[in-house]
Each structure stands twice: as C-alpha cells, then as structure tokens.
Design brief:
The protein is 60% helix and 10% strand. The radius of gyration is 34 Å and the shape is rod-shaped. The protein is an alpha+beta fold. A hairpin with a 3-residue loop joins strand 2 and strand 3. A five-stranded mixed beta sheet has the order 1-2-3-5-4, covered by helices on one side. It is built from eleven helices and five strands; from the N terminus they run H-H-H-H-H-H-H-H-H-E-H-E-E-H-E-E.
Length: 389
C-alpha cells in the first residue's frame, strides 16, 4: 500500500497514522514539545517576570502550542495555523522575545507538514509563514529579517529532505517486493513445469503400454510418484521462507537438501525415467560455490531439460556439461532434437528461456540459447563466481 500522498504522517514517520505505534507518536511529540519549552518557554519566563499579568497569559499560550503539537502528524495545517496565531500572540505580549523564537512551534509544524503533505500545500504554508517577515524586519532590522526567513526556509527544506528520503525508501521497498515476487514465480515455475512435464511424459508412456506391458506401466507410475514427491519437497523448502522457524522443525521434521548442483544426478534420473538418454559431465568441484550461483546453475539445467521434453521433436538424447572454474561456472545443455518450424531461441519465451536468462542476469552472468546448425538445441550459460554472495 502506498502512503506517499494522501496519508498524513506517511513520510515523516515512515508509516500511515493508523499504523504509527504509540511509542513513536509519543517520541515525536515529546521531542518537538521539549524543543519548544526549552527554546521558547525559558525566555518567556525570564522576560515575562517584569511584565506582571502578561507572564501567565504568555505561559498559557506556550503550553497551548505544546499541546497542539500532539496532533501535528494528523492535522499539520490546522496545528500550523494555531501555532502561528499563538506564537504571534506571545510575541505581541512579550516583544523582547524574538519573533523567530515565538514562532518556533509553527516552524516545527511546518517541517512536519512539508514532509507529509503534497508540495503544493507545503509551498502555500511556507508562503504564509513568510508573511510576518515585515514584523521581523521592524523588530530586528535586516539581521532579524534574515534570521526569521532563514529558519522558516530551513524548516520547510528539512521536511522536503525527509519526504525525499521516505519516498526513496518506499521505492526500494516496492522494488524489493517486485523482485521477490519474480523470484518466487521463477522458483514455482521451475519446480512445477519440470515435474509436470516429466509426469505428462510418464503418464503417456504408461497409457501406451498399460495392457501389453503392465510392469513397464507400473514403472512409469512409480516415476510419476517419485517426481510428485520431489516437487512437493521443493515446494515445502520454498514455503519455509514464509513460515516461522518454530514451525519448521517442531515435530522433528528433517530438512531436505535444497536444489543445487550436488543433486544434478537426481535431476537427470527423473528425465531418464521418461526414456530420454541424459549424459552428465562435470569438470571441477562445485563445493564452496555461492548459493545464488549454485541454485541458478541447477535451475538453468532443470529448465533446459524441461524444454527438451516439451519442445524438442524427436529428441532422445541430451548432454549436460557443468564446468566450474575459478572465475565462473559454465553450463551447457545440448539435445539432438529436430529443428521443426517454430522451435527457435524464442521457444518457451513465456517463462522458460526468459526465466533462464533472468536467473543468469541476477548473478551477473549471461545466457544464450538457440538451434544448432547440424540439428539440436543448445543452452549455454556463464555465471561469474566472484562478487556473488
């Protein structure tokens, strides 16, 4: 939910008023009230001693400003007007108190208003606060005028700075949410698409031989069960990120290893169960790889194998090569499918190849995919190791 404009207090305190904790509200009020009491209240008492009955009235006006500050995040415009009037009244009663000091509470409220209201509103408030400038000039000359205008403009500028900071924070939060949603979508797609593709092929094979070769049909059904269990296990791992830790292992549940290059053989076996010949070749050791690179490499292989099952016409063999070097991990997946019309580098752009390219990009790598001249389809990725957490 975006509180960037219409919600008072959204920028100054970081949340909407109805979401502001009582502690934060009290801290804001106490801080501004303390400043007004220290900077304005003390001079009022010192100066007012010599003015008889004016002192109690001035003290009441100062206390009224302090009380009004309690509502400055909810209704800053109204509080600004009230504090401006009472501040001018204090100055009228005790001219020895500077106009800048008498209007301190109004300046604090102007800062809050500048941070929480649209700029057109805060600019009008700034202009209104500058109206008493002639009084400041009459009382203190050019120095008094400069000090008054400077404090008013600084109060407004401080609010604008705070507003900018909060807008940047909200933008970063929105971007993080979008990226997290995209990450979850990629994970779910990779898990479900691969498992369903394998199960569809197995189900078709079981149906073809169900009567003549029941044992082979049973093998296909067992492969479907294995694939489904594997997909459910990976989905549980994904969902654990959104569950409290105490719910994970409270019943002694054993954690399953997450997707990684160490489970590449299991991935290949699930595809071999469909009748596809899968050759896996490793060069170098994957131990110690950054988790992001390890997961990206695994998912790229998984999606490439899924695309082979779904789109490679006549393919019965696929080669997977993973090379771990000091600077990067290279992943190559090549199948021997025919290249019918329509199968190109854009095949599966809805999620497949786009997801693989996005995974490579997120770790600072690159990926290319396309048909080979002599037939078949190749997916090749380079994933840098350095600088990735």
């Amino acid at each position: 939910m975006d509180h960037s404009s219409g919600q008072p207090g959204a920028v100054f305190v970081g949340v909407a008023p109805n979401e502001l904790s009582p502690r934060a509200a009290r801290a804001l009020w106490r801080g501004s009230a303390g400043a007004v009491l220290a900077v304005l209240g003390t001079p009022v008492i010192v100066v007012g001693v010599e003015h008889g009955l004016r002192l109690p009235l001035a003290v009441v006006l100062v206390l009224a400003q302090v009380c009004a500050l309690k509502w400055q995040t909810r209704a800053p415009a109204a509080v600004l007007a009230a504090n401006a009037v009472t501040g001018l009244a204090v100055w009228a009663l005790l001219p020895a108190v500077t106009l800048t000091g008498a209007l301190l509470a109004a300046q604090v409220t102007l800062c809050v208003l500048s941070a929480t209201r649209p700029r057109r509103v805060s600019v009008r408030a700034l202009a209104a606060m500058c109206l008493p400038a002639s009084l400041a000039f009459g009382a203190g000359g050019a120095p008094g005028l400069v000090i008054f205008l400077l404090t008013v403009v600084l109060a407004w500028t401080a609010g604008q700075w705070r507003r900018t900071q909060q807008e940047r924070t909200r933008a970063e939060t929105r971007r993080a949410v979008v990226e997290e949603r995209a990450r979850i979508a990629r994970e779910v797609h990779d898990i479900v698409a691969h498992s369903l593709s394998v199960m569809v092929v197995q189900a078709g094979a079981a149906d073809d031989v169900f009567t003549e070769q029941p044992e082979q049909a049973r093998q296909s059904l067992r492969a479907i069960e294995t694939g489904a269990r594997s997909a459910l296990g990976e989905l549980r791992l994904l969902l654990r990120a959104f569950r409290p830790d105490e719910e994970l292992d409270g019943a002694g549940e054993q954690r399953e290893p997450g997707p990684s290059l160490a489970r590449l053989d299991e991935l290949a076996d699930s595809v071999r169960a469909t009748g596809m010949s899968v050759h896996v070749r490793r060069e170098g050791t994957a131990d110690g790889l950054p988790a992001a690179v390890d997961l990206a490499a695994y998912r790229i292989v998984q999606e490439a194998l899924t695309n082979t099952l779904r789109h490679a016409a006549g393919a019965d063999e696929v080669s997977v090569r993973v090379t771990v070097e000091a600077e990067c991990v290279r992943v190559t997946v090549v199948d021997n499918g025919r290249a019918p019309q329509g199968r190109s580098a854009t095949t599966g752009e809805g999620r497949g190849l786009v997801g693989m390219k996005e995974r490579a990009r997120l770790v600072g790598g690159s990926l290319r995919a396309g048909p080979l001249t002599g037939g078949g389809f190749e997916v090749a990725a380079r994933l840098p190791v350095e600088g990735v957490l």
